[in-house]
Amino acid sequence: MNQKITAFEAAMEELDSAARVMNLNDDAIAYLRQPRRVITVHVPVRMDDGSLKMFTGYRSQHNNALGPVRGGTRFHPAETVDDVKALSFWMTLKNSLAHIPMGGAKGGIVVDPASLSKTEEERLCRSYIDEVFPILGPSVDIPGPDVGTPPQVMAWFMDEYEILNHGYSANAFAGKPILLGGSEGRARATGRGLVYAAEELMKQCGTMLKGKKIVIQGFGNLGSHAAEFFDDAGAIIIGISDVNGGKYNKNGINIKDAVKLVEATGTIKDLKNVEDVTNDELLALKCDILVPAALQNQLNKDNANNVNATYVIEGANGPTTPEGEKIMLDRGIVFYPDIAANVGGVFVSYLETVQDTYHFFWTEEDVYRRVEVVMKTICREVYTLSQKKHVSLRMAAWIVAINRVVEAMQLRGWVRK
């Protein structure tokens, strides 16, 4: 059996490819290849039965040339330090691509949040912040939400930080409840931003989103909201999936029913008027647009030849391995990369920090207008460079993002020109 490539290995392969195209010097490559800081913490939690359990947590701060770092914190039983390092690297690129004056960071705890009671989860959140507190702060590192860390988690994070910091610190975290300084539109921003990107990509490719058949792998926060916005835009969702398997209807799935079912039961398992399909079958469905919105390495050399889509728009972080993408590019599939497609949530997290800093808040409509401008501007910029340089959309996105980070490092005197 072939050993799976880690997310960090995949990220470094992509960096090496971009470095060759861009003729990056050794100084710049050295700074980009490693995070400035990675810490591992062992988080003590008193469980409800009185026992003490230690959880392993991480925080990676990749590059702060553009400003303080920011990035989400995951609660996932399969979290690894390599995942966190890769995600912090991608966050640097996303912030750069979206003209956010910040660098990339990422955190995580090895835990299945579903295995914890609410009181245990709160104690875990507070204990984690106790451990990483010295490296956090609005001018240093601003954590946000990710897999397994809904607004309540971010509220506990913020409250513990404020206890330690002796003062109100809403701008030290993103993804909080609205009442505690969260931004309108944050929960749906990543899905909505992806659809804005899809609309612009279709326009750049001389077609339109309306009527396109869509398959979405992963029906969590990102995938379900993207499905709703695709549906509103007149696209047809023919396939969706979650951890219990996939659902298919060649004439279109009733997305409103699917969303209601997930709200009621937490899964699409009992969705009506659909056929059951496996994950492999879902990824091989004939469609116009495939959106991998689950975890890393879902599209790889083992299944790349089976993908039957015209476009792949990456919702998840790192869902495609370099080998898998090469196979699909050679087959003529158009790839729109994660660092450009799923940056909507990152941008709204930045807007949340701005709002908290100035104690002035925008409406959901105001937020989405800003997201639309950013997502479509990124797409036009990336597509134009791709055509000019005759490179893939991913490579174009990397060139745009890396150029800004490298220029910032040069201006600071970190690397030579």
Description:
With 417 residues, the chain is of the alpha/beta class. Among the domains are: 36-171, Rossmann fold (3-Layer(aba) Sandwich); 187-336, NAD(P)-binding Rossmann-like Domain (Rossmann fold, 3-Layer(aba) Sandwich). Helices cover 46% and strands 18% of the residues. It is built from 14 helices and twelve strands. It has helices at residues 7-22, 26-33, 81-97, 118-132, 151-165, 186-204, 221-232, 255-265, 279-283, 322-330, 338-341, 344-358, 364-389, 393-412, and strands at residues 37-46, 52-63, 69-76, 103-110, 141-144, 213-217, 236-242, 245-248, 275-277, 287-292, 309-313, 334-336. Strand 11, helix 10 (322-330) and strand 12 form a beta-alpha-beta unit. The protein is globular, with a radius of gyration of 21 Å.
CATH class of the domain at 187-336: Alpha Beta
CATH architecture of the domain at 187-336: 3-Layer(aba) Sandwich
Strand adjacency order, main sheet: 9-8-7-6-10-11-12
Share of residues in helices:
40-55%
Count of runs of 4 or more consecutive helical residues: 14
- Give the C-alpha Rg: 21 Å
Strand content: 15-25%
What is the CA-CA span between the terminal residues? 44 Å
Overall form: globular
Mean pLDDT: 95
Relevant terms:
417 residues; alpha/beta; Rossmann fold; five-stranded mixed beta sheet; 18% strand
Layout of helices and strands:
Elements: H1 7-22, H2 26-33, E1 37-46, E2 52-63, E3 69-76, H3 81-97, E4 103-110, H4 118-132, E5 141-144, H5 151-165, H6 186-204, E6 213-217, H7 221-232, E7 236-242, E8 245-248, H8 255-265, E9 275-277, H9 279-283, E10 287-292, E11 309-313, H10 322-330, E12 334-336, H11 338-341, H12 344-358, H13 364-389, H14 393-412
Parallel strand pairs: 3-4, 3-5, 6-7, 6-10, 10-11, 11-12
Antiparallel strand pairs: 1-2, 2-4, 7-8, 8-9
Helix pairs in contact: 1-3, 3-14, 4-5, 6-7, 6-12, 6-13, 7-8, 12-13, 13-14
